UniProtKB/TrEMBL annotation, chains A, B:
Residues 422-643 form the Glycosyl hydrolase family 67 C-terminal domain. It comes from Cohnella cellulosilytica. Residues 104-421 form the Glycosyl hydrolase family 67 catalytic domain. InterPro entries: A-glucoronidase_C_sf, GH, Glyco_hydro_67_C, Glyco_hydro_67_cat, Hex-like_dom2. This is Alpha-glucuronidase. Keywords: Hydrolase. It holds the Pfam family Glyco_hydro_67M. The keyword Hydrolase applies.
Amino acid sequence: MDHAERIYSEYNAWLQPKFSLEPKALQISASSDVDFIHQECRLGLIRLWGGIQESAEYTLRLKVDDLEHEGFSLTPLENGYEIAGGSKKGLLYGVYRFLSRLAGGESMEKIQEHSAPQVDYRIINHWDNMDGRIERGYAGHSFFFRNNKFDYDEERITNYARLMASIGINGICINNVNVNRVSAGLIAEPLLSDLAELAARFRPFGIRLLVSVHFDAPMIIGGLTTSDPLDEGVMEFWKAQSAVVYDKIPDLLGYLVKADSEFRGGPEEFGRTQADGANTIAAAVAPFGGVVFWRCFVYNCQQDWRDTQTDRPMAAYKHFQPLDGKFDRNVILQIKNGPLDFQTREPVSPLFSSLKNTNEAIEFQIAQEYTGQQIDLYSLAVQWEEILTTEVDKGKQLKSLLGREILAMTAVANTGDNMNWTGNTLAQCNLYAFGRMAWNPELTAKELIREWVRVTFDTDEHGRRTVEEMLLKSRGIYESYTAPLGIGFMVNPSTHYGPNIDGYEFSNWGTYHRASLEAIGIDRTSKGTGFTLQYPEPLQRMYDRIESCPEELLLFFHRVRYDYKMKDGRTLLQYIYDSHFEGARQAEDLLQSWEGLENRIPQETYHSVKERLKLQLLNAREWRDQVNTFFYRKTGIDDEKGRKIYR
Amino acid sequence: MDHAERIYSEYNAWLQPKFSLEPKALQISASSDVDFIHQECRLGLIRLWGGIQESAEYTLRLKVDDLEHEGFSLTPLENGYEIAGGSKKGLLYGVYRFLSRLAGGESMEKIQEHSAPQVDYRIINHWDNMDGRIERGYAGHSFFFRNNKFDYDEERITNYARLMASIGINGICINNVNVNRVSAGLIAEPLLSDLAELAARFRPFGIRLLVSVHFDAPMIIGGLTTSDPLDEGVMEFWKAQSAVVYDKIPDLLGYLVKADSEFRGGPEEFGRTQADGANTIAAAVAPFGGVVFWRCFVYNCQQDWRDTQTDRPMAAYKHFQPLDGKFDRNVILQIKNGPLDFQTREPVSPLFSSLKNTNEAIEFQIAQEYTGQQIDLYSLAVQWEEILTTEVDKGKQLKSLLGREILAMTAVANTGDNMNWTGNTLAQCNLYAFGRMAWNPELTAKELIREWVRVTFDTDEHGRRTVEEMLLKSRGIYESYTAPLGIGFMVNPSTHYGPNIDGYEFSNWGTYHRASLEAIGIDRTSKGTGFTLQYPEPLQRMYDRIESCPEELLLFFHRVRYDYKMKDGRTLLQYIYDSHFEGARQAEDLLQSWEGLENRIPQETYHSVKERLKLQLLNAREWRDQVNTFFYRKTGIDDEKGRKIYR
């Protein structure tokens, strides 16, 4: 075991010691009102270098200056260095960024940066239940809750807050959007005091808590007989209860609400609009500067598979677009990146281009529910970059809306109480990338992956390159052996891992591929369900016409015959076969590449990732064979290249 | 509410009061050593008539006589009546039979019968776990166990024992064949004393308990490091432990063992044969007259769907047939009726015709795991009659082996702690029929259903006829809308209720239909997997040739093209469509027939059965549409009659 091995710990994630770096003798200078930041800076340098050699010759100055509120500047001076922030928060971000660039191996004299975040709200959503289980969690149990109580390791919370602040996260919602009768009580005593105590632990790191509230709280904790948002008593309940909440936690960011969705109550049950529901709650937190994040994941989850008129991806637009302009200023509509549900490949939700007078948040999912569950390697940064650079309106990319209409980037956490936070250690990269990308959406996946690899592993150029390449390719590989071309789903119901081609085909969830012996997919064009009409021109026309539809989304928008000729001349069927054979082969490559890293990556990480890559290979082969067999059994047409398809 | 309504209770099952009967004034005469039977007779008459009018004019004499051990005779005398039994047990059975015929409305003077059971062991197997849950239970929780302890209502146990004795059951295994670490302890203290106490409650009714034991008991409760049946220590463990058991329960019937099956340990893990395993345990109980029921449900439940060589129905024969003659005399091989797993339609297990020097039990399943789960109406009597009258060897029907090679009829219980015992009240008929048929396999389903209806309901001729017809047709209806022609499965994995055509198609369980665009089924003929070769001639040839294979088993034995012409000229595909359209329509008829019985059937039963018939109709339509759509999507061929098939 070499030196690096002894100091590396998966628990440190991207805040690893780097004793291999050349320390610099220096003194830190800061005014006493930024003591906490001063200390974070000092602790950070000690972590990196193993200690600080004090020297009056070189001063690292920390100061609050006239910059953007959360912004910072990093400036080398003669015989010194200055980290300035537009506020204490900005200064803290500056310190973390400075430490990160040092950790990446840059020399202090060359680190120069001026930066401010593009969106105000950079938020992590935990889907933690208070019984300790995490919905769609793949890294153990909650580190906030157990047995319907707060139950946490204080040191872990501090470390978590530091990790999050170091990548610019400034808001965290600790409880599942699927609020139950227990977690509904978080906005009332006795749980409220515990929540306030936890909020205090995050506060020094510039992180404000959010709480998922139950739309039916007026009944559940208020003892009322209705939750009708236009009922006087209900409005009064929200006001009074919010006053209690803000009295305990004056800087609470606000509430997150999942209403009228998947068996949750909501305003539509009372004949009210989504705006009625959101505004009533928003009015209650407005006096305290609070915000309501109102999720747009509203659709009919009791669809009959025989019903071909209802088209689930159209639902959010139908519910929310007509209400554009009707939401209060402190309401932020939280919209999943795609119109369906965190699939490997979806178009961007048409709500982003169609809401003009509404505050929006884009919601990503770092938890790999449909993308390999932290067993299969999957770099979400690659996908997010594609999404953010998608054209959503006359020449405008989605990312151009960030900081304008889109005020927030939120994401479902991929963390749990596993020692390495994320189950698969390489999945730490997704968490890292989310925070950094929310800060600066111009960063590419390649840059983000490169940053993360450099700060995490003390390995050589070959080691870094290999991990970078594995991550960069991972999303494409996973997509190719699962359900490519935007067809989505085809996963095992409930677990959402592994293939089950017809698994959702006759269910209530509105996710159908309707594969016949001749064709597959739903016609979502203007001649079909009309989903494409939810996009502005020229996107509408682009998606509508099979010739101009981006090929990777072919089966999201079109019903296509298996003998359809793809752009390169292959039939759709042959494309499906090729994609699955090739994807499974590349999963082998991933394992092989990783095996080349033995002794270049700390043992613990090497072995645990290797185990997962082996499971991924099994999964990839299962996908390959089930998908190919499924289509062979529909068509009777063999692979052109004669590869094995089971009968 | 009329008189009958007031005295009927679902809890009484087939032991209902029948105050409408003409009571007969009589006195009962019996020697003092049959006091319990005397009392059962007296209680039975009081139940039936509402009371007994004593009269010295007419004597009902109970006596033990020189008859078959468990046999009885019922004989009208001048001014009296005699019930004689070949033993106390026989006498008890005579009393119950006498009461049952009275309850059916026959006049005492005309009740004449001489009867003895055809098999020695008539056994109910409960799949009750000690935590209180019942595996594949559809009528509530266990009425023996709760929270890993014995926990029962004494009165309910007595009533259950009486119900079972009244239909001739003489053995009951109270714990699940899937023995876990808790229930493994039933053969040791402290649980053993509780078991003994329960055994005492069944004893007066002529019922001996059986206990499911864990093959690894030598390790789990004996503290040994092996369960190898040829290990001296293991043999010693079984002997010593069995001595302890029989000291507490001298009349324990014996042990039931599921070994080498679905993740249970077994002799094959130690390189031993099934006979080695069974004989070691049997030797331990032999000195006490105990018996070992050794299940033959041994197969590879970790099959790869890509593997077309392994054919699950062949497994039991392969494991056990070569061992014919190797099992000790007190071993009884417990063989499921079919080679697969309690499907709606299977051939008879080839083990019955091929084991010549081995004691056998035939195992049925009264619990409706694959046959509607006590929601959908399903008369098992109809299926059992078909099975028992199936030719298994040169002109011999299966039932001719009963009492010869087949010494026992056993069945998985359909009971639970629901007030009506069986969830669906009409499912009581299956429990009733099993006991009666185990006693007398010559009874037809029609006779058994008629008996049950008469003793259970105090209704008019129209009422009786309607229920009888519903039950008689029910098996055919269920089969037609689910997975007919012996194809089996196509159910939702895990739950085994409702359609999921490809649900088991890519699983490990060895149950595949391999439907392509042209054909469906596994070729199990001599040209295929060779399963048919496990049958003797002429059955082998009959099943082997598609022309002579019974049509209802077509897809069990053959892989058949959709354009294959059935006997009546329809294509297989059209048969599938017709079967499902017709089955769903008949499910409507069932509901309609039942609705005609309002006020003819007690309200409680009327409504609860009606609710189930409505659910059955939904289920039938779901099956119809999913199956038809599945095959339409494979073939592109529409229904000839133009009925609606969803695309």
